[in-house]
Amino acid sequence: xxxxxxxxxxxxxxxxxxxxxxxxxxxxxxxxxxxxxxxxxxxxxxxxxxxxxxxxxxxxxxxxxxxxxxxxxxxxxxxxxxxxxxxxxxxxxxxxxxxxxxxxxxxxxxxxxxxxxxxxxxxxxxxxxxxxxxxxxxxxxxxxxxxxxxxxxxxxxxxxxxxxxxxxxxxxxxxxxxxxxxxxxxxxxxxxxxxxxxxxxxxxxxxxxxxxxxxxxxxxxxxxxxxxxxxxxxxxxxxxxxxxxxxxxxxxxxxxxxxxxxxxxxxxxxxxxxxxxxxxxxxxxxxxxxxxxxxxxxxxxxxxxxxxxxxxxxxxxxxxxxxxxxxxxxxxxxxxxxxxxxxxxxxxxxxxxxxxxxxxxxxxxxxxxxxxxxxxxxxxxxxxxxxxxxxxxxxxxxxxxxxxxxxxxxxxxxxxxxxxxxxxxxxxxxxxxxxxxxxxxxxxxxxxxxxxxxxx
Length: 456
Ligand SMILES: [Zn+2]
What we know:
By secondary structure, the protein is of the alpha/beta class. Helices cover 49% and strands 16% of the residues.
């Protein structure tokens, strides 16, 4: 059996040099890197060979769009493209209208291959570049991509690639939202049988992102704007290696919008329908006291019989504010009262907690400042009377803290959009946000039509 390296060198003496580097590599790491170079060159040759074969096949010339005459071949012309393996070149037939109509030359093979007339980089490189940009700052991604692929990249190129893809994803989303409003249901996302039996937990929160004050210039004071984030997930309990019961999420989906609650609501509803909210065994809404987000619950999920839970830690925080206003935060009495009432709220005595607060507010000797705070606290808990059955919720295996919403905000927004010195333009933020959403929701590849095999 001849060695593969010998076959290569016999086939073309130009392989001699890279193959020699493999043979001379001392460490395994250097050997792997030398093979990497050989593999890239081999891939380029395979691609160019295949393209040459296809270019030789008979061409069916289309009719001219303007005058209808059949195009004439003007012979073979070179085409270059940056691919995942480095630059490639091949020659293919180019034709034009015998009348010389506008629209100049056409290359039927380019069209068959899904190449646009002025495209200089392969769709697979765009895909990988956008994927990198989802996770790391543009500057870093611009350095990583040439290292990974061998495609040289000018600063700003990656940013320009992300914009049209982001626009496409946003347009698809807008279409689906409008469709649903007009009565066209989106296809339900497939769900594993063991997850279908779990409650669908939905929650939402807001997170601030730094923006440039004026479009087109980095000057001026940072403008902070709120991004609304919602999470939908099947929530169950699983045992850790140490036998501890912890909450586990499955089929986690995120929705986010740089905009108002009114703009979040239809997007969240769309995703909820995709996640089969209407047939879920149990729907749970989880949020802190933010009034705006509770209107989402009232508008979308209340009528479905959803269970709503007021974030326990938020409720406890408000109890503490009440305790501190009444009993001075530094005292032992304050600490004791707070600990006791928090314990009762957590363990099924919510009605007594409400009764105690009502009695307290009615006490004539209460100072006025404390009365206001305690009255607010009472109304807050009374409003959420149905959402504070923490003992029942816990027994049913439901989460009582909105930690899953907060961690979604951290991952989706904090990690990529709030790096040192980062400030965004509205379109720049939106395009990348929607790519990041597509990634986390496992729909990233569908944003790249050229990467999806078409059924023949
Ligand atoms: Zn013509």
